[in-house]
Amino acid sequence: MTLIQCKMCGGETEVPLGASAVECKYCGEMLTLDPPKSRTGTAPASTDSTSADSEEGRKATLYAAGLAYMRPRVENIESYEAAIAAFGQIPGFKDADEQLRVCRDRIAALQAREEARRAKQRQQVEAVLAKRQKRTLRLKMLLCIGVPVLCACIAIGLVLQLAVFPAIKKQNFIDTYGQAVYDRFGVVEPGAYFELGKCEQDNTAANGEEEIEWLVLEFRDGRALVVSRYALIFLPYHTTAEDITWEHCSLRQWLNSDFISTVFSAEEAAMIPTVTVPADSVPGQITDSGNPTQDRIFLLSAVEAERYFSSDKERWGIFTQYAEEQNYLYFSPTNSGTCRWWLRTPGEQQDKATEVGTSGRIITYGRTVDSKTNGVRPAMWIEFSSLGKS
Asked: CA 257 from chain center: how many Å?
């Protein structure tokens, strides 16, 4: 058997018969057999002495390799296992047996450290999972408890809004103004509608006159400011095109004479007080607004039309069938079915009056007062304490 010593690790590897090179079984280094050299004139060395020196060198090399494996850049189990392989070949040589024990202890320590690291990692993962499970459980509890509570709150809110609050409002109104007023008008408040007076609206005389609907704009001290929901008729602001104010226009005279006496019963008319109607003007205009008037029926001013309607759409003038039919020669309805309607404030010229356009926008420039294409939406105050008086 031929053995060859590795120059890298010092380990000996058996060389197959006839081979000239072999791989070191310890470190993988390729080993090449050197051809024997003849030593002319020199007596051959003793075989026993050469073998002993070779064996001692092998052990020293393996010992050095084992120590080198024990000092890796990064401590690892594989290096200690390589050191054990080296020391295991030289039992009893120097402190090789002690180094074997040290290597096994270090391997055990590294394995324990790795196991501790993995255990800590498992604990961290388990903690994260537990936290997620806890959060999920809390969310489920919140849903199980919160959703019914939320639904109950919504239900209570709806009950309060749709039943309790209206009932309280109704009772307060009845306590203040009496059952008779409530039975006749319901709860009167801004935005509400009620019916009072009659006039032809559907243009079918055979079925009689229809109740006039009124929109409540303001309610205070037992009085409500109202305006008709629809444009009831098309009339000029004044019969002739001349400089005029609300105080002297023909429409004011008609509203406070023919209209009020025709539309309302005596009992209903008694609910309409005479009030002071201010002569409002459009800011920046130089036209004369005239004097305040004492009226029962009047038109809204440009200021009031701005104050009581929050948008152009709310100001849309919707006309009755009767109004449209009676004024077909002068009026062509828009695609939206709306019309212009008069305001009492003078326009930018004295022979014009302001109006609400078909889009609901307030037109301060105004329209010539004898125009017959504007609708009329009467306004008035209602005194509820007068109900039942004649």
From this structure: 56
What distance in Å separates the CA atoms of residue 31 and residue 4, rounded to the nearest whole number?
8
The domain locations on the chain are: 2-33+48-106, 178-386
List all residues 6 or more positions away from 244 whose beta carbon is below 8 Å from its beta carbon.
Answer: 237, 238, 346, 350, 351, 353, 369
**pTM for the predicted model, two decimal places:** 0.61
Nearest residue to 272 via CA among 186, 137, 379: 379
Q: Is the dihedral of CA 174, 178, 184, 185 positive or negative?
A: negative
pLDDT in tens, 227-266: 999 999 999 999 999 999 999 999 999 999 999 999 999 9
178 burial (CB, 10 Å; 0-12 / 13-18 / 19+) is middle
CB within 8 A of 339, min separation 6: which ones? 231, 234, 317, 318, 319, 331, 333, 358, 373, 374, 375
| Model pLDDT for residues 131-185, shown as the tens digit of each residue | 999 888 888 888 888 788 888 888 888 877 777 778 887 888 888 878 888 888 8
- What lies within 8 Å, CB to CB, of 172 at 6+ separation is none
Strand partners, 277: 293
CB 380 within 8 A of CB 272: yes
